[in-house]
Structures are given as structure tokens and as C-alpha cells.
Amino acid sequence: MPKLDQVPTSVTLSAEQFEKLYLNPMMHRQSPLTRKLGNPTPLALGAFVVTATPLSCCLMEWRGAGGGGAAFTGVLILFGGLLLIISSILEFVIGNTFPSVVFGHLGAFCLAFGATMTPAYNAAAPYSETMTDTIAGLHSPGFLNTFAFFLVSMALLMLIYAICALRTNLIFLVMFIAMIFCFSLLAAAYWRMALGDLLISNRLSVAGGAILFAVAMLGFYLLAAQLFDSVGLSLSLPIGDLSHLWDRKEIGEYEYPAAGGDPR
User: What CA–CA distances, in Å, run from 157 to 11, 35, 102, 139, 152?
Assistant: First the structure.
């Protein structure tokens, strides 16, 4: 009679491993759905980096790119915005509040930015002299001065996220800190452009694009670290776990189902 071997259907994740996979500090009461559903975090990271990378290259005007990202309107809406919103909902379902909020706001930003540059939404045209020219409206002082406040608000949001990211990992923290400067520089670029100072505005845009490019590269690294762990590769990329800096009483261990297994 053949011997029956018991096959383990779950593995126990440490606080560091859980945080690395979900970008959320592990608490004692974790939603049981995290044991039954897949991890949506890499989906959001992939959407973010593929959207942010070409946009940053556009801001830095590499290979003659320009237009403020108008060429990426479809990418912003259908790739970045759509996938980030879907990821936000899935993070909400499995009880990961922080990633859910982050991905939801970034997804909404992509949708809003893409919609603003879409003539059908008529966001910029009223600022033009004819009230119908979207291109002229996008470059008008009234529109530039107004839209810059949206970027300032995003910078403040990144500041809050950076504080929260102190409970996660160093890569995530640095990304948010860098994005504070990115949004601030872009807001300043809009205000200088509204004053007609194209030279300083261009320099500020290039600086903002350079920071966004660095953020995107960190995002690629974080995405690779998560996917490598999710498929069980022996290559584990360090991300600078910060969970050990906090009260260990709030952090336990988590039992994660192995591929094809049922959670315990």
C-alpha cells in the first residue's frame, strides 16, 4: 500500500514578510479573506510604475517628448487609473486599509489628470479666449494657477502617506517622501508658467520628472521584490523592513495558504 504523505497547505509569514507582500503593517486581527484571495498589491504597483515611467520621461523631455503627458491620456485612464482603482477595491476587501487608500487616491489622480486633458470633459477649454479651445486653455494662466492647487493637495497627501509608511518599509517611505517634492515642484512649475517664466517652469518640470523617474524605479524594485517572493524564488530582495522599530505586541504571525491549499 503506497505511503500517504501529509502536504502542508499553508505557510506562516512573519511580520516582515507580510508587510513586504501587502505593504501594510500586520495586526493581530487580520481579515480571513487575505488567506483565501490573491495579493492585489503587485497589480497596483505594476500599474503605477508603467504609468509613472513614461510620464516622467515626458516631463524630462527625453527624445523630444513633451506636451505635459497628453500622449499618455489613454494610459493614465485605462491602465494606471483603472488598475489602481481595482487594486484599491481589492485591498479594501481583504482589509488592507493603508494600501487601499493609497492606490485609490493615486488611481483617482490618474483618472482626473487624464480627464482634464481630454477635450470631451471640457475642463480646460473655458479658460481659453474662445471658451472652446482645450489646448489654449491648458496653457492659460487661469487654468495653470488653478490646477497647481490640486498638485499641492497631492503633495500634502503624500506627506501623510510618508508618515504612515514609517510602519512599513524603507522603499515605500522613500517613494512617498520623493513624491512630496515631485508634486511640489510640478505645482511650482505651473505657477511659474502662468507668470510666463518658461525657463524656470521648464527646469522645475524637469526636476519633478527626474524625481518621478526615481520613484518609478523604486516602484519597479518593490514590484520585483513582491513577485519574487510570491512565486517562491530563492532571490529575496531587501526592502528595508521598518516593522521591527515598533511595538512587537501589536505584531504577530500570519498563516498564509500555500499554492493550491486551503487556509487553516
Answer: 36, 30, 9, 26, 9
Measured in degrees and rounded to the nearest 5, phi and psi for residue 87 equal -65, -40
pTM (2 d.p.): 0.81
**CA angle, residues 143, 131, 149, in degrees to nearest 5:** 15
Residue spans of the domains in the chain: they are 41-122+139-241
- H helix runs in 94-140, sequence order: 97-116, 134-138
- Chunked mean pLDDT (size 10), the chain, 264 residues: 52 51 52 66 95 94 82 90 96 90 96 91 88 88 95 97 92 96 98 94 96 98 91 84 68 43 38
DSSP 45: H
Query: How many residues are given for the chain?
Result: 264
Q: How far apart are CA 36 and CA 33, in angstroms?
A: 5
How far does Cα 214 stand from its chain's mean position?
13
Closest among 169, 162, 178 to 240, alpha carbons compared: 169
Burial class (CB in 10 A: 0-12, 13-18, 19+), 249: exposed
Here the cell at position 199 is 525657463
- Which residue is listed with cell 513633451? 66
